[in-house]
Write a structure and sequence with these properties.
Low-confidence stretches: none
Number of strands: 3
Mean pLDDT: 86
CATH class: Alpha Beta
Helix content: 40-55%
Strand order of the largest sheet: 1-2-3
Oligomer: single chain
Number of domains: 1
Largest sheet: 3 strands, mixed
Structural class: alpha+beta
Number of helices: 4
CATH superfamily: YefM-like domain
């Protein structure tokens, strides 16, 4: 589960938030409604970052197609 929480509230409720994070919950900390940080369980941050990077790369590849280039063929060519 993922919840947004304001920075002031996060500061005042930090011990409670940490208990919830230990149980697997995640929080996005906002400042004036703008996301500025994520409070996630240890080890999940890398997973979240990797998933976000993969999603962004996929979106980029879909919006920047190169006519005549077969990505699968290039991948196979690069394999030993």
């Amino acid at each position: 589960m993922h919840t947004e929480i304001g920075a002031y509230e996060a500061k005042t409720r930090l011990p409670e938030l940490l208990r919830q994070v230990r149980k697997g919950k995640s929080f996005t900390i906002t400042n004036r409604g703008e996301p500025v940080a994520e409070l996630v369980p240890v080890g999940k941050a890398a997973d979240v970052g990797a998933a976000r990077a993969a999603s962004q790369m996929e979106a980029f590849m879909r919006s920047h197609r190169i006519p005549g280039v077969d990505i699968k063929a290039l991948i196979e060519y690069g394999r030993p």
